[in-house]
Write a structure and sequence with these properties.
Layout lengths: L1 E8 L5 E8 L2 E5 L5 E6 L9 H16 L4 E6 L19 H20 L4 E5 L3 E2 L1 H8 L2 E4 L4 E3 L11 H10 L2 H10 L3 E2 H7 L4 E2 L3 H13 L6 H34 L2 H20 L1
Parallel strand pairs: 4-5, 5-6, 6-8, 7-9, 8-11
Antiparallel strand pairs: 1-2, 3-4, 9-10
Helix pairs in contact: 1-2, 2-3, 2-8, 3-4
The protein binds ligand LDFHACXW.
The site of ligand LDFHACXW has 33 residues, from helix 8 and helix 9.
């Protein structure tokens, strides 16, 4: 939950500031299907800052505890599923906050990857880097046309840690994953379908959600405990490895981001994003 200062003029005519709690995710459970939809709502691009990550984590936990039959993750933004980590969190960072951001990204990944109910991503817009991470942590992906998805870290001069890559490796043949990662390739929707990075294309967010519901429905007659244990069997090795390395991974991330040449690169990258946005 993030707090925002709202400004309003009170009865005395004085401007007052009021702090309100704003949730950056919503969870809606469909009464008929029992499926929960987790929607990210941090305009304009669902940049994963500390508050959004904390809210995603708490929404996943809410879904874990409310007996939902499945989880669909999507975005309230019309063009972007998630632009990945909020780059502002990495630029001239406060060290404690940066540590918390990476720890929460890890938490979100392992909670989503490890949840026992069926999961699906309705990818209603672009999903680079951390956006792709969320989608690949799920069991099924449906994406709208003319968007991009992938792990582009090498394009930014950085490497994606093993746990971030493991979702990719669950889905793509090793050969395709290695080439895509070394190239920092962002797949178009059509390419993603062709390579198997997504499972289906839908013409709208609504259709994407419907297709995710249909996927989750395929488990209706499967014993949920047997299903959950089978999923766990497939994912346990990656999770075990992740838990062994997670503390070292935070230290590595901090020392990478704090390197002067990386800070310089992030500054240039941010500038480029802003220039592109201003041209549009
Ligand atoms: C650069 C990182 C370098 C080093 C870090 C070191 C170690 C990290 C270890 C590995 C971890 C990686 C995880 C990550 O997720 S890194 C984040 C990578 N994300 C991206 O590269 C995506 C960048 N964004 C885009 O490509 C496009 O915005 C996108 C295709 C998603 C959407 O395009 P669209 O045309 O719809 O929107 P824009 O006009 O581009 O953007 C609108 C405004 O949003 C701002 N923006 C976009 N992305 C981000 C972001 N990730 N963080 C913060 N802000 C972002 C953009 O600047 C525009 O802002 P304004 O100018 O309107 O203020």
């Amino acid at each position: 939950m993030s707090s925002r200062l709202l400004s309003f003029v009170g009865r005395t005519g004085r401007r007052r500031l009021m702090s309100t709690a704003i949730k950056l995710t919503t969870v809606e459970v469909n009464d008929k299907t029992g499926i929960a939809t987790l929607t990210m709502c941090r305009p304009p691009v669902n940049g994963q800052n500390l508050e959004l990550l904390l809210d995603i984590k708490s929404s996943i936990n809410e879904i874990k505890n409310n007996n939902s039959r499945g989880l669909i993750i999507t975005s309230a933004s019309p063009k972007v599923f998630s632009a990945g980590l909020d780059i502002l969190e990495m630029y001239k960072p406060d060290q404690q906050r940066l540590r918390a951001v990476w720890t929460e990204l890890q938490n979100v990944w392992c909670d989503l990857y490890g949840i026992s109910v069926p999961t699906a991503a309705a990818i209603n817009g672009h999903a680079p880097a951390g956006g792709c991470l969320l989608a690949t942590a799920c069991e099924y992906r449906v994406m709208v046309p003319n968007c991009i998805i992938g792990l582009n870290e090498t394009q930014l001069g950085i490497i994606a840690p093993k746990w971030l890559v493991s979702g990719y490796l669950n889905i793509l043949p090793k050969r395709v994953a290695e080439r895509a990662l070394t190239q920092g390739r962002l797949f178009t929707t059509d390419e993603a379908l062709q390579e198997g990075l997504i499972d289906e294309i839908a013409n709208s967010k609504e259709e994407a959600v419907d297709k995710c519901v249909a996927f989750i429905g395929t488990f209706a007659k499967v014993n949920p405990v047997a299903r959950a244990l089978t999923k766990q069997q497939f994912r346990a090795d990656n999770l075990r490895q992740f838990h062994k390395e997670r503390e070292q991974d935070v230290d590595d991330f901090l020392s990478l981001v704090n390197r002067p040449e990386v800070q310089k690169g992030i500054g240039i990258y941010l500038e480029g994003l802003k220039k592109k946005a201003n041209k549009q």
